[in-house]
Amino acid sequence: MIGDVNFENLHANFANFIHSQLGVTCLKVYITFNPVGLVNLTGNIPRNILLYSLNDFNATFSNLLLGLDIGSDLKPSFGVTGNLAIQGYDPTQKDEPVLFLAGKLALEPESITACFFQEGKNSWCNPYGLVGTELRNIGFQGGGTYLPPYFDNFGFIGNLKWQEVDLEVAFLLDTNDPKKLAFLLTTHEPVNLVDLWQGPIASGVLKQASSSISLVNKTLEFLNTFLDLNIESIDRHGDGKLDPLVKYVLFPTTIAGQPISEGLEINGKMTAWGHEATLTLYGDKTFNKVEGSLNVPEIDLGFLKIGGTNDDCLDLALKVTPNEQYLMGDGYVKFFDNEIAKVEFQITPTNVIFKDFDLSLVNLLAIDVDTLSIELESGCGSGIGKILVLGNTLAGTTFDFTRDSLTLKNTKLNLAGFLTVDLPTLTVNVTNKSASGTGNITAFNQSLGSGTLSFNTSNTSFVTIDNGSLGLGDVVKLNVPSFKVDLTNKKLFGVGDITLLGKQFTSSGISLNESGFQAHSNFNFGILAFSGATVTFNKKTNGNIDNSASVAGNLKFLGYNFANVTASVNSSRLTVSGSFNFGGLFILKGANNKKNATITLNKAKNEVYRSVSIAGSFYLLGKELTSLAVSEQGQTLKVFGIKIIGKAERN
């Protein structure tokens, strides 16, 4: 059947488009009827029609065939098939060849869709400045409404060959300015994102950007330090269709009814820390900020591991500005044999930073961590927090650590209720499960000297102070190879050397507690000696140690032994007070029959003690004698010129 259709009299969107845009008022058509009820209407438009034109860009329609199909559902399908010649389509090139395409312009009741594909096998080299690429199987697609200018989006699709990689690509053109471009790229195989971005993308479509792309370069450089950026497209929505790997849009547009905002978007999967990960990047067209996310099952840095807390996967937020670059999230952390349920962290180009968590080190100390920063390359770092160690709570303490140790800085420990140890550093060895540090020891409101503090997990009730060099004022000096601090019974004890009046005595049993100091040993000054003696310093009411000590033990003087004698010693002299019986012949006691005489041993400059001074009187047969002296040899006593020989000389 043959008839004429007058589009000017038809009140439909497609009729108005054919009349006003294609310039067809009346058209002779052929109508056929199918036995199953299908109706087909065709009509030839024997001229060329300029479908679209703006600046250098124009699309010319030729060999047009108008068609209408009505199926059994009585829904019409109306369209125009033909050839499309496109010129001025690539603003990055001059005198590019005309593209000849064939396809159809579908006229729906409310929209227009154009779909044309390349005739022949000619390729488009370096499309839109993508250097080193070749576009094949070119297609032209467009869409719009029946309101002028009719098309609100159109562009090119095809297979882009770059190096040895085949990519799917779409170029969307701004209908107001075809020099503005939206770029969509999809890959079915891994491609290096850095090479792709810095190669054809940066040399091509990114030249249209009005601002610097250095921030995106910085983002990729940051991610490339710990991710394998061989990336490929993924199906994020589970609809069986891969999402574009790269979207770069300089103007808002709509594709298949879905709005696309301007800016940059990268979606894909790659390998991160040995696991498959999903990366998403967003950036506006100014590139002042890049944000995104990284989804990965686990981060294994060797010296620590971070895992997800809810779905066994980490969701990390990415932020890059001109001043900072980091991944941020919270997760399950394994560090120094600690398993910490949920910790906030940031990963920067050089460090991983944790905040606000509790850390226990091999049962030696606990840390309420405020901030912990670890170098990614070395596994070393530093932090600050509240430390609990040996019953001490230390707020605001800074510390450094390596992969197997942690060192506290400027630590002051109170031990056993009376002892304070100031340690510039206290190092915990995680492998050996021990801690040690050298510092100054204070007790009784005075510095005692220095020593090396150490403790381990085998018995946390005892602390060791090695190489202790201590002093109680100017009276007593101590050198003890190893002190034990009993934290339960609150005392310090050990065996070492004690120095009194400048003379050193070895193998002395030494102990300190909150009441004072004691040392047990034999003290032989030559002219007199104490055996089985105890030297005692007591703490005064003001907390200070007394400036003199008592010595209690058995005295040996002039070869005679005197049991249970008590003496006092200070920095300059030792004083013995009492009544002394020399073999029943002579008795030394106070003058005028007073009870006690005093024997004084003054400190010698050369540590050689050859004389003592005596305050008192000798009594012979009950008579008081005077004019006594002790010889330099210390074994002879002369009274009124009578020489009394001590036991050692007599023998």
Summarize this structure briefly:
By secondary structure, this protein is mainly beta. The chain has a domain at 515-651.
Would you write up a description of this structure?
- There is one protein chain.
- The protein has 651 residues and is mainly beta.
- It has a domain at 515-651.
- The protein has a 43-stranded antiparallel beta sheet that branches. A four-stranded antiparallel beta sheet has the order 44-45-48-49, with no helix packed on it.
- The protein starts with a strand and ends with a helix.
Give the low-pLDDT segments: 629-634
Shape: rod-shaped
Strand count, sense and barrel status of the largest sheet are:
43 strands, antiparallel
Number of strands: 52
SSE blueprint and pairings:
Elements: E1 2-6, H1 13-20, E2 26-33, E3 39-45, E4 49-54, E5 57-70, E6 76-87, E7 99-107, E8 112-118, E9 124-125, E10 133-144, E11 151-162, E12 165-174, E13 177-187, E14 191-192, H2 193-203, H3 214-224, E15 227-232, E16 246-249, E17 253-255, E18 258-260, E19 263-272, E20 275-283, E21 290-296, E22 298-300, E23 304-307, E24 314-320, E25 325-335, E26 338-347, E27 351-361, E28 365-375, E29 381-389, E30 392-401, E31 405-415, E32 419-429, E33 434-443, E34 446-456, E35 462-472, E36 476-486, E37 491-500, E38 503-513, E39 516-524, E40 528-538, E41 549-557, E42 560-569, E43 573-578, E44 580-582, E45 586-589, E46 597-602, E47 613-615, E48 617-620, E49 623-625, E50 628-630, E51 636-639, E52 642-645, H4 647-650
Antiparallel strand pairs: 1-2, 2-3, 3-5, 4-5, 5-6, 6-7, 7-8, 8-10, 9-10, 10-11, 11-12, 12-13, 13-16, 14-15, 15-19, 16-19, 17-18, 19-20, 20-21, 21-24, 22-23, 23-25, 24-25, 25-26, 26-27, 27-28, 28-29, 29-30, 30-31, 31-32, 32-33, 33-34, 34-35, 35-36, 36-37, 37-38, 38-39, 39-40, 40-41, 41-42, ...
Helix pairs in contact: 2-3
